[in-house]
Amino acid sequence: QRILRKAFTTEVKESANFWEALDQQVQYIGSDPERKEERHSADRVQDKIDDARNRFADILDPDMVYPVGLIKEGRLNILNVSEFSDKQANVALGYYLQELLNDRKAASNARSAKSKSKKSYMFNSPIFVIIEEAHVFIPKGEDARAKYWATKIAREGRKFGLGLCVVSQRPRNIEPSILSQMGSLAVMKIVQEDDQHQIASASESISRDLIAQLTSLNVGDAVLVGQWVNLPAIIHIDEMKGKVIGSDQNAVDQWTIAKRFEDENNGQVQGTVQKDLLLD
Predict the structure, then answer these.
(1) Which of 27, 65, 56 is nearest to 43 (CA)?
(2) Do 114 and 166 meet the contact criterion of CB atoms below 8 Å apart?
(3) What SS3 state is found at 266?
(4) In this model, does residue 24 exceed pLDDT 70?
(5) Do the beta carbons of residue 190 and residue 205 sit within 8 Å?
(6) How do residues 228-252 score in pLDDT, each as one tens digit?
(7) Residue 266 above 80 pLDDT?
């Protein structure tokens, strides 16, 4: 680890050919005649580098741009992790949350003259993060990278202009310490008692009468409580017709189409067989 830390210089990080630059720097450290004891360690580090290049060539891209730099300030940015495994998605989300919090914290401190750094910051205005399927990324009773940073943002993000919204159909599986930090809630139809209890414990604004009404809400209805309304209110949310990702598939329609194709193919096969019989 000492050899790798010494070799991982700024020049290596910014090199156009990262792997070659890192390998050469390790080689240079190991060739120091005054530090012969480091030669063996440098050889082992080079073996590790070769192994990493061979095993992760399809994953690690040294030429990849700074991921957070792709975020456009003042725009709606969507991180699509639908093709990731749960673990991969959690790591990716945790990375973005960490970078966003650190950048907003540094920018806020600089603006309030708590820091004398003249560094330019990526995000000079507040950011609002929405986590869909929150029970997957910030699960109760499980250790997850994204949950760690989401907890920090829920607890202190508002001081630095970083807001957090969590969306889930299973509130009982969300980390309670994060859910309790949500100042406003929009609660739609919920039948499970465990979910109802979790919501009731997360907000003092929800009475027993409101909890009792959750099971009878229609599709699109929601109860608003918290800081964004003076009094609890029941509203109706219009359906968004443009949704193309995450919507339920219509199994009956797909079965009907498949059956129609099957009938058409069978008809073509029978017609071919009859024609062959006539030729015979």
Answers:
(1) 27
(2) no
(3) helix
(4) yes
(5) no
(6) 888 888 899 988 777 666 667 788 8
(7) no
Name the packing angle between helices 37-55 and 18-30 (round to 10°): 160
CB neighbour list of residue 223: distance below 8 Å, 6 or more residues apart: 185, 186, 187, 188, 206, 210, 213, 214, 217, 232, 233, 234
Show the CA angle centred on residue 227, arms to residues 222 and 228, nearest 5°. Answer: 55
| Residue the block writes with tokens 């630059």 | 21
Supply the pLDDT for residue 268. Answer: 65
SS3 content of the chain, % helix, strand, coil (to 5): 50, 10, 40
Judge contact between 103 and 157, C-beta under 8 A: no
Tokens representing residue 241 in the block: 């017709």
Nearest to 131 by CA among 196, 65, 67, 182: 182
Q: Give me 8's structure tokens.
A: 């991982």
Q: What is the pLDDT of residues 142-171, one digit of tens each?
A: 888 899 999 999 999 999 999 999 999 999
Name every residue whose Cβ is closer than 8 Å to that of residue 74 and which is 6 or more positions away in sequence. Answer: 125
DSSP 141-161: TS--HHHHHHHHHHHHGGGGT
Which pair of structure tokens corresponds to residue 35? 């530090």
CA distances from residue 274 to 44, 59, 266, 278 in whole angstroms, order as listed: 73, 55, 12, 6
